[in-house]
Design brief:
1319 residues; 5-oxoprolinase (ATP-hydrolyzing) activity; Nucleotidyltransferase, domain 5; 28 helices; alpha+beta; Hydantoinase B/oxoprolinase domain-containing protein; seven-stranded antiparallel beta sheet; Hydant_A_N; Dna Ligase, domain 1; nine-stranded mixed beta sheet
Length: 1319
Amino acid sequence: MSPHMLDNPSIKIAIDRGGTFTDCLGIIDGREEAIVVKLLSQDPANYADAPIEGIRRILEKATGKTFPRDQQLTTADFSNVSIRMGTTVATNALLERKGERHALLITKGFKDALRIGTQSRPKLFALNIQRPDVLYEDVVEVDERVTIEDYQQNPTPDKDDLLRRLNLDPNLRKGVSGEIVRVLEPLDESSTRESLLDLYSKGYRSIAVCLVHSYTFQEHELEIARIAEEIGFTQISLSSQLLPMIKMTSRGASATADAYLTPVIQRYIEGFRSGFQDRLRSADTRCEFMQSDGGLANFEKFTGLRAILSGPAGGVVGYAGTSFDENDKKPVIGFDMGGTSTDVSRYDGKLEHTFENTISGVTVMAPQLDINTVAAGGGSILFWRHGLFVVGPESAGAHPGPACYRKGGPLTVTDANLFLGRLLPDYFPKIFGPNENEPLDVQITRSKFTELAEQINAETGQNKSPEEIALGFIQVANESMAKPIRALTEARGYDTSAHNLACFGGAGGQHACAIASSLSIGTVIIHQYSSILSAYGMALADVVHEAQEPASGVLDDTAMQSITGRIAALKSKVINALTTDGIDENAIQHEVYLNLRYQGTDNLLMVLEPEDNDFAAAFVKEHKREFSFTFPGRNILVEDIRVRGVGKATSIAPEAPQQELRSVTLTSLGADSQDNSSSVYFDGTGNVMTPVFFLKSLLPGCVIQGPAMIIDNTQTIVVEPNAAATILSRHVILDVKSSKQQKDDATVVDPIKLSIFGHRFMSVADQMSRMFQKTSVSTNIKERLDFSCAVFSPDGKLVANAPNVPVHLGSMEYAVRYQHEQYGGSLKPGDHILTNHPLAGGTHLPDITIITPVWDQECKAIIFYVASRGHHAEIGGIAPGSMPSNSKMLYEEGAMTMGFKVVSKGIFDEEVVRKFLYDEPASYQNCSGTRTYNDNVSDLKAAIAANHKGATLLEALVSENTLKTVHFYMDAIKQNAEVSVRELLKSIGRQNKGQPLRFSDFMDDGTEIKLEIRINSETGSADFDFTGTGRETFNCLNAPKAIAHSAIIYSLRALIDVDIPLNQGCLAPVNVIIPQGTLLNPSGHAAVCAGNPITSQRITDVVLGAFGACAASQGCCNIISFGIGGVDPKTGEEVPGFGVGETICGGSGAGASWHGTSGVHVHMTNTRITDAEVYELRYPVILRQFSIREGSGGQGQFRGGDGVIRELEFRMPLSVSMLSERRVYRPYGLEGGGSGRTGLNLYLKKELDGTNRTINIGGKMELGVQPGERIIIHTPGGGGWGTPCEQDIRASKHDVGKNSVFQARGSVHAFSLTAESAL
């Protein structure tokens, strides 16, 4: 049909505006072929806005008319127009920090709360700690305060009394969630108005508001909004209205993101609408934008907070609608490989959402699709580093781009594919080179890979071809992309091989076969629009509106009556919003969710309403699958009620290929049907002349055996020799065979295999970590991830360690080696050993290690050990929490053992465990057994489950590669790490001309830590000699010798400053000398509970001081704990209660080129701080202040980071323990830099006569506090570097590094962040 004869059809236009390209799709009623337009997102010489230009070209092709660029567009030729867009406008503004200037209003005492954040550092081994800066430019503290009246850990709650007081006390209110809130201080409207007027006069028009507990008590935020509207602010982002979920820090950061991005989005939308004559307001025109949650929103309701993953969300909706079959319900892994990175996700019939993500350093609390991004894209740079093949995370970007772009760029994954023949330059446009008129340059890739091959061969003594080198980099990239897929599946209880792989994105087709093969996935689905699938996803998406409210209380029949009413109200709210957007009420479907958790845990699950309406049963089932256990009889708590309204606004039917695949007649195509041929390099076959087929000329039912290439205008699909391609009407289906059963030479180290085995061993440790976290029950392990998992050689030497906890890095090896020597000959399959004693390789008693041998197929020989060490928050002793500041003997700190078989031949020995945890600790004077026995046992079983997971994965690795090969590369990886450390030490030795490095520092009690490092510059070996260190002390600061090893391995890794394997090789060049009976090698009787978290920090400062690496950091982690309960010393009876402890950040030390960072955890600890709202909800405490301690960092050319002030007010009589260092000796500066200020602990005490006293309680103190009394903790600052001058002091503000091109995200990345945020 001629385009001029169109009889006013309807048109759907879907657009994905990406960072580099904008993809546009025009679907016209009555036409089989859609119109596809792909153009550069930025081309100012030709057009101002890429989406408008794309629409212009679609309209021209659809109508045959000319639409001049200098005129507004008209859609009058169509009866109905639907424009749907995903855009990176918000993402780019966030990455480039080009959002709206705005201010933050926050409760008094918390002006720095968002700056401090969780207090953890982004990179575990970074001495120059760089945290992205906050988004707001100004902050105002608001005079107001509310708190939660009761507390969840109350052992004797009285709800009736609470309700009675609610009716009598005018300061008590019922919050939205149902919790009773106490108004401590009403909003000071006068001062708030004054502050807002001041901001307005400074030019601010956008504000974010976040008040403590506003998720449930919203009145104060709403009142601030009313005042701000009166004054004239145009953007007011209230945390309570954006997503009313608990966690002030996350909610506040989200509010600032909204205030920062929404004006940018609104300006963009206004500019976009101005390109149309009707400004898209005609009755027959719809304009909607894709939100991060996979739903569309009318342009008037599209906000910055929900726009951050707008583009990638379209891809998930796209593959869900084109790959998932509602009949066979086989789940799908989405694999979207682009230029900078790769997105992976999972779909099983419902979209999987996360509600808290960190994107570009900003925590965003909003529903988002669980899209996990890894740093391996077509533009990822290839490195040969420390004997390993490394891909990314750095990217060549669009400029200069890969080497083949002819702009002087580095070698990338794209170059490797081009050089190997997997990209065909003849079918690429000639848009490269300085004048953008040349083809891809194959010759430069050949030249560069030849040069790199010569370097690698010279260093390794091997004779690899350039092609083998290029393929090796592709294999390493494939392994890095397979890792998050395993984490999304296996680590969550799903079988990876039981999925299909949906491949899309510009680079995905070149890697799909290899990725699927390595994961044993048999089927790859590639849609005809795979290169523009995000745009197609916009066309398939539904219009969505969500409403959510917080809740509280137990899920039971009574609660469900109230919840049902609230659900109805939320449904009504959603219906009203969608009908306002033009959605027919009959087309609206509702998804109802309850956010549920077991009482006593923090494991929230967003549970979709089941068909039988039994939320409790659905929660138990989901909990069992996700975490492998349940708590029969324990209360289930409701945290949030969520209603997701879905308006079915599209008429495009889902088009999964399974039915067509079952019915189509298959015909095998031979090489005689090829359109061309080209030489392609494959693993195992080398260069092969490979047939090339044009997709558009292939008919449904054609089957092409690999090797082959299938190309169309926008994609290249590589069909590997172990695969076959079936052509369908809208899909290409790849049938892939597994690449298992590899046999490699176990006599010569292949650097490619070495790199891949490094990934695989780390993947084993990582999956052990996930299993431990999933199956544990305690907050310490499940939420704070205070544990480590590792793989060891048959003689007990460290092979791979998931880097959760720096202080465990070297120490676990000594525990495994000790047990290997004790039990090695008597162990049987099914045995597991438990140990925690300092003399047996322990750190402190709460860190309990489970060690498991891994056996060969005949169960005759141990081929590996695996071990999991978890910090148990309670193991008995003289005080709740088992971390007493006044312990002098080891037995006062709880349960201890040199080692015993906790499991023998598969049988868990409950009797021995009870004796270890309860009976033996309680036998000592004034001591209790563990106060949380059931949780302890559950966590021990979780560690056993983690070890079982590790053993299973190692056995699979051996079956794939043979035991000889696996052991060969196990040793090679250790040797690789050793070479890296030796090279570092050689370099340092030469710089210092063979002279010893010396340093010492003093603990606050005067005990000296003294170190001399003697380096052999020829061999790279070194003595770390602590001779001269003071005697062991009669307090809890003694540190078992394994801790010094951990501090050394941490320091060496930090000095190398690139990723190397963390294993025994790191310490192989090092000889550690620590005289017995000293602080760092105490006797078996010495108390040690603070040696692990605190003395370890001081050891690290001494090691780094000897190397002159940086000034001292705070040298502490400021442990405060409080609680009630335990054994009553007068009656001897067990009193119910609770205990809680936390560590508090300080300042980091400056270095030769950087300022220290304020309010951050350093070196051997990286725990997250408990959010203020969660803290007050759980415990009888009010957090009055959490701010940066200005001026506490040392002065210098580069200034030390400042410490913090944390002020706690107690609401009932409690036992409080304070345990800290650096209250006497200041954190040192270097090279003329000033020392940081010491810490200070103050106690605001109420006397019987009604007066108050402020008392300095020193670094260590046990207190019995009364209601209204406070502890104010001032943490130390970091030391400065370099002689200060006036100009330096004025300029000493903390630099924030530029954001890298790659930004990791998703639930897998969130786990990694949390794992690195553990003590």
